[in-house]
Amino acid sequence: MGETVRYTYRLRPGATAEAALLAEWGRCRWLWNEAVHQQRSGCRPTFCKLSKLLTEARARSSWLGDGSQVAQQQTLRTYALALQHSFKVKGRGRPRVKRRKDSLPSLEYTTRGFSIRDRRLRLPGGVSIPVVWSRELPSDPTSVRIYQDTLGHWYASFVVRREFTPAPEAEGAIGVDWGVTTTATTTDGAYDLPYHGRRKRCAAELARAHRRMARRRRTKGAPPSNGYLRAKRQAAKVAKKAARQNTHDARVWAKKVVDNHTTIAVEDFKPTFLAKSRMARRAADAAIGAAKRELVDRGLRAGRKVVLVPPGYTTMTCSQCGTRAKHRLGLGVRVFRCDTCGYTACRDRNAARTILATAERGRAGADDVRHAITSFRDGGRVRSEPEIPRLPAVGKR
Ligand SMILES: [Zn+2]
Question: How confident is the model at residue 210 (pLDDT cuts 50, 70, 90)?
Fold first, then answer.
């Protein structure tokens, strides 16, 4: 059995190739914005309609016609999908205009549009880019996304099939509660993920870079100064470093948790009301976000039962007898004490146990989960957000 995954590599385009990529992005961005305007002016742009318009537009404009048809069609396909999701998925907004100054280049090609020859990535228009092959591709890729990050580095993310490696035999269940001081508190202390404060440590450096940016901010209408651009790059570099460390920590931790448990109950974390100061809160939120993503992703891929539990009332419900306390625990209260059965535990540990108990009692049957996993593994496309059964809030039964 195989699974569909992404393998990402660094690209090292020369000046000509980079100019070609940016020009391609300019055309695709224009198309995307055109589709957004169409939607706003009331004619529902489906992929079919947009494709027809694209053919006409390419015949009319040589600027558009010079670009890759595959990349342009993929842009419209992505747009149509984003629009469809904005109607179906709760909380997702309509696709918005991509502005030049704050959107990062991203291009998609199917096998009709790209090939790998002599270990270089070949794109339409004679563009040839060296790839840093940090590991071998497990199979021939079916599509590729080429993108640039905030530091200006280019990457190619290939969609490939690879052999499915089954997760090790395991038994047991674990509950996970997210927090600021400890990123993940679990039912079993051995699996806790401490908060390393990666971003906090970088915060001073980042603040310095931001101050430098503010000092060098351009006057309206003038192009940004070199000093400003340097400071901006510095800030992006610091933020990136912290994010990478977060992801690394999260990966190591998630692997350990997934390898040793068959049922994983996770607090469905929403990044609000966590810490007081904005900087600290953003840093802790980022660490939690990375850990949750990795855990859910790995858990589903390994075929584990993953359940998301809404965070409401988990800290004030007793994990032993299920009684909900009459009053919310203050933020300073670190110990939970049950008035009914006398159970006492660390506040976060009790929350993690309540999360697990809720998941085990919950409505999500094994069938729902198996269904989610099958479609995740064999859907043919890589999903960024797998569907996981969400349980009703604690106490609502
Ligand atoms: Zn109790």
Answer: confident
pLDDT tens digit string along 344-370? 888 888 889 888 888 887 644 443 343
317 Cα–ligand 1 center, Å: 8
Contacts for 112 with CB less than 8 Å, ≥ 6 apart = 70
Q: Ligand 1 mean position to 306 CA, how many Å?
A: 26
Cα gap 279→308, rounded to integer Å: 27
Taking the C-alpha atoms of residue 28 and residue 394, their distance in angstroms, rounded to an integer, is 46
Can you give the pTM of this predicted structure?
0.73
Which H, E and C letters describe 333-366, residue by residue? CCEEECCCCCCEEEHHHHHHHHHHHHHHHCCCCH
Residue 179 C-alpha to ligand 1 middle, in angstroms?
A: 22
Distances (CA, A) of 115 to 25, 83, 110, 124, 284: 19, 30, 9, 9, 41
Q: Mean of the pLDDT values across residues 372-386?
A: 37
Secondary structure (DSSP) of 362-378: SS--HHHHHHHHHHHHH
Could you give the C-alpha distances from 245 to 180, 249, 255, 275, 288, in angstroms and in order? 17, 6, 16, 21, 13
Task: List alpha helices for the chain, DSSP H.
Answer: 15-40, 47-60, 62-65, 69-88, 198-215, 226-260, 278-301, 347-361, 366-378
Q: Would you call 254 exposed, middle or buried from its count of C-beta atoms within 10 A (0-12, 13-18, 19+)? A: buried
Ligand 1 centre from 101 Cα, in Å? 55
Please give the pLDDT value at position 228. 83
Token digits of residue 391:
């349980």
